[in-house]
Amino acid sequence: MGSSFQVNVSRFAPPSGAVTIADMNPQINYSTHTSPPAVRKQALGDPRGIAWRTDGTKAYVTGMGSNNVITINATGGRTVPDPIPVGEGPTGIVIDEARQRAYVINKFGGSISTIDLSTDKEVSRTAFFDPTPLVIKTGRKHLYNTHTGSGHGHISCGSCHVDARWDRLGWDLGDPSGDMALVDGKSFHPLKGVKTTQFLIDIIGRGRGNLHWRGDKDGFADFAGAFQNLQGADAPLDVVSMQEFSDFLAACWYVPNPYRTYKPESVSSTSRINPGRIRGTGVTFQSVPPAVNLFVAVNVNCVPCHNAQTGRGDLAGNGQVAGNAPGAGGSTSNTQGFTMNRNMAGDLRSSYRKTGFFYNTTECTSGFGLLSEGVMETWYNGAGTGNYMGDYEPEILSWSGGINATNCSQCFNTTNFPFSTSAVNDVLPAVGMRHTINGAIGSTTTLNVLKDLADTRATEYAMVVKGIWGGVPRGFYYMGSNNYQPDQNGAAAVTHTALVAAAQVGGAPLTWTLVHPTTKIRHGVDRDMDGTYDFTDGDSELALNLVLEGAWTGTAMRTSLKTAGLLPMSDPYGMGATMSQALFDRTGSDAPVDWVMVQLRDGANHSTVVDERAALVLANGKVVMPNGEEPLWFPNAPRGQYKMATWHRNHLAAMTNVAQQYGTGVVSIDLTNPATVTYGTDARTLVGGISMLWAGDVSGDGVLRYTNASNDRDPILVRIGGSVPTATATGYHPEDVNLDGVVRYTGASNDRDPILVNIGGAVPTNTRNEQLP
């Protein structure tokens, strides 16, 4: 697909409407199937957002699949070859020209990247909590990532299967050089002809039969070769990654069907579309009961091949039908002119999205129809009522919608539906309905509709509440009987009347939302599903700034360890943290200096460590997570009062003097500010008006010593060899007090003198103790 798929930007000039198209990946040589790694890294894939500077000369385009941002000029050409690396899955972008900043939301990474418009560099990455299940986080890269998923770095599976759905196109992906394939005793020619893109959502283990329109894939693992053969990647996707991809798709759900009503009306319980039914009958859509009856009760009916849950199933024979070209709308010849599937009856849940293709008009909204080759128009376009195929259409349009054994037992009757399977991942139509009450805004009548659904259809709907309660953000889930569980472990239930009354006062809005029953706890009260509810858990987040005296150059901290390739990717404190490559690759004031440790200590008993983590301090003083994001997050510290302590492997620790409340927002602590009060006496040194951590604790015992036992000077001499004072040693060593990557005992920039200076500079036997309890 190297030359058949490009990432373009289109522009038109009013009033003529003339369209100009520019390729946003001009570096790609489409005559080859792959690019060198350096060129592949420049590619933009799956663009999702664009923001222009006010003068119209420059725009920033986000690549969700390539995890970067490119800049283009007014004609669509790139301003520079190299993109701006950001977090995973960038989508939206806004520009704040007054502050010379652009802000990018990284959907998959759960963060916001800040770009300096004067340098077009990412200067910070701020994390927010992402409740996405791990199976989704792990597997979605195989759908979206264009750099690892293709030879040129610009396409992925998601280029056609957009968001695991489809692109409304048909592709002829036959391989003239391919071999005949034998699958389940049936032969398949490598020239398959045009086939429309299929949905990938919830295809794993659903229904019977194989995959692909023709059923020429025995299982999902058989698609591994497409990464190389179709997308130009260096090799097929490996077995472990294919399993991650499969697990991801199995966890994806169909969204609510817009053609279903929120509650069932006067429909027979034996009808396929129980519990809901299509919106509207008569002229626009044929009546519902004939559709169900035709589906199960004609001579050549649907149920021997299609199951009642997904529509997928087996075909008993080869399923080939020859015919003539399609006829005029409404003509029975419209059922001809196509070749039926051979091993598989297609999934019908996405059929409602395939409308808009007509034979008798040029006013189409789609170039492809309902069937595999893209033939078969939207049938309700035919004149009159009682059209045989038109009677099927209401059934097909309303196929998805949360069928399970409780709400539609007849759908699991194997007498009528031989290929019945378990309940599937498509939700009922009211999931996602929400209503807000804030003073006079909002209606209790509408709210009662949501509550009635949660009360009467508890296997299909649950309800959660989010908003301001007691002056702070809170969450609840509906337990039934007019009671709600708050997001605080052990808290008493709150009544429906109490929540509504509080919201009607005004200024403290509450929003009620219908969700799937399996997600009510995560949505309502326990976002990370750790058993500690959100209000109890809190968000212990910290924005920390500090300076390491040893690395200070007079204007910033040196990043010599990183520049020399000496800074380890794994933390030196045994915490198991790993620095991301993206953070290591940062330059300038955002480059990493070294690893530090940060702790939250009990506010009442500050010798007790509640949670701790290894982090990295940047040249500008910011302390960030190992993935480069900020603020620091302490998941094991529940909402409460804490003191913060921090230290470095050869700098003395410092701790805040006053406990602060964590869990109600981001706590900001700037240890570079002399006004920030720390525990003890002289816990930091003051250099040029900037407070810093004391350098020189080579032994790491919390005491600076220049002479006597356990002093910090002798290890420096030992590190360089122990006999020649002018020798040096390069590496990542605790004896490297100034963090320049070279241990020196004498001469300029030696690591011995700072120790003497920091104990007073005159009396070698003096010591300095770190200020921790």
Q: What's the end-to-end separation, in Å?
A: 64 Å
As an assembly, this protein is single chain
Helix percentage: 10-25%
Largest sheet: 9 strands, mixed
Task: Name the poorly predicted regions.
Answer: 265-291, 317-338, 383-387
Overview of this protein structure:
Helix 7 (288-297) packs across helix 8. Strands 21, 22, 23, 24, 25, 26, 27, 28 and 29 form a nine-stranded mixed sheet that branches. A six-stranded antiparallel sheet has the order 15-20-16-17-18-19. Helices cover 14% and strands 23% of the residues. It starts with 7 loop residues before the first strand and ends with a strand. The protein has 16 helices and 35 strands.
What would a concise description of this structure say?
The chain is an alpha+beta fold and 773 residues long.
Strand and helix layout:
Elements (H helix, E strand, L loop, with lengths): L7 E6 L4 E6 L13 H4 L6 E6 L5 E6 L4 E6 L10 E2 L4 E7 L4 E6 L4 E6 L4 E7 L6 H6 L1 H4 L1 H4 L20 E3 L8 E3 L2 E3 L5 E3 L29 H4 L9 H12 L37 H10 L90 H10 L36 E4 L6 H13 L5 E8 L2 E9 L2 E4 L7 E2 H9 L5 E6 L4 H5 L9 H4 L2 E6 L14 H4 L17 H4 L7 E11 L6 E10 L3 E3 L7 E2 L6 E9 L2 E5 L4 E3 L2 E6 L13 E4 L2 E4 L9 E3 L8 H6 L8 E3 L11 E3 L8 H6 L8 E3 L4
Parallel strand pairs: 21-29
Antiparallel strand pairs: 1-2, 3-4, 4-5, 5-6, 7-8, 8-9, 9-10, 11-14, 12-13, 15-20, 16-17, 16-20, 17-18, 18-19, 21-24, 21-25, 22-23, 22-26, 23-24, 26-27, 26-28, 30-31, 32-35, 33-34
